Amino acid sequence: MELKLDFSILKTLTELPGISGRENAVRRYLKEILSPYADSVRTDAMGNLIVFKKGTSSKNLLFCAHMDEVGLMIHHIDERGFLRFVTVGGIDPRTLLAQRVRVQTKNGPLLGVIGTKPAHITTEADRAKAVGVKDLCIDLGLPAQQVLATVEPGDFAVLDRSYEEFGDGMVCAKALDNRAGVFVLAELVKAIQKPFYNVYAVFTVQEEVGLRGATTAAFGIEADVALCLDTTGAADIPGCAPQDYITALGKGVGITALDARTITHPVLFETLKTICDKCAIRRQIRIAPRGGNDAGAVHLSKTGVPTCGLSIPTRNIHSNVEIVCKADVEQTFRLAYEAAQNGMENLTL
Ligand SMILES: [Zn+2]
Asked: Could you tell me the distance, in angstroms and rounded to a whole number, from the CA of residue 127 to the centre of ligand 1?
């Protein structure tokens, strides 16, 4: 198979706003680009986008990739027009200092700045203190009256950062978790032709707040087997020990053995490793005792579905400077493609 992923689609995907519960812009874009390749496309009550592609057998393979990203929700506007917020999904408040956001208002997005007291007016003791979300606010640069007329509690604020390719085949952007997985699944829908499995490519909602979309999507599909495409932490940075890396950039697709929510079915685990070895797909084993993804919900649906998480290693995950390696994205695509096309024909679970 000739491998040619169109990374301009990943760029577009990362630039769209899509905090948990507000994935509509991502869903609309995917529906538009994937409808020509699908046998059917529908959106369920939760907002999951379900793209179906008919296979040559009667077996069903469910793919999940969550559309949502972590972000902020405005919950208070003070008398001077500064915005206080809560986090949606897991964000370390230290990563929000001195950052820009786009507040999604009824009149469209507004640029906001999360400021920080400059060094000139802080003491060493101030700077040593932990930063909490309660210490932070968004400055819209507008008079209070104008802010009150435009922004309401419940509005979302998306992290703001452009997509950049840099270094040795790296991408830095916001929302690579999980637009990188969404990108792989979108490219898969386009690429597969007469696959062995009936493929349900489900772009899920609200993963970051508790695997909520995947829970209902999996309930509505009679899946024989499932693969969940997501990013995972790559802690291969100074200050972390090699045994704590979880995954490392450039070492290929992460095949999950165990995370906080799943232990992969042994036959499925071995089959995926064998596909990689046969097709010269670079792989690493993901063991993440503190992480989880849609696979946690999917494998417990109905009477149980053998499920494996296929993970794209990501540095600085859940910040606006997430980094993935393009080669890892390609290896993840190749494994997903081979598995759907005919690599799991003889899978007996
Ligand atoms: Zn994720």
From this structure: 31
Out of 3.10.25.10, 3.40.630.10, 3.90.79.10, 3.40.50.2020, select the CATH number for domain 7-69+174-343.
3.40.630.10
> Please, what CATH class does the domain formed by 71-159 belong to?
mainly beta
- Concerning whether 32 is annotated as a catalytic residue, the answer is no
Predicted TM-score (pTM) of the model is 0.96
In order of 13, 41, 275, 289, the CA distances from 250 in angstroms are: 22, 34, 19, 22
177 C-alpha to center of ligand 1: Å?
A: 5
Ligand 1 centre from 181 Cα, in Å? 8
Q: How far is the CA of 143 from the centre of ligand 1 (A)?
A: 37
Ranges for all domains in the chain classified under CATH 2.40.30.40: 71-159
3-state SS, residue 299: coil
Q: Map residue 190 onto helix, strand or coil.
A: helix
Residue 24 has a pLDDT of: 97
- Phi then psi for residue 133, to 5 deg, are -60, -35
86-95, 123-132, 214-223, 329-338: least confidently modelled range: 123-132
Q: What is the pLDDT of residues 300-330, one digit of tens each?
A: 999 999 999 999 999 999 999 999 999 999 9
Percent of the chain with pLDDT over 90: 90
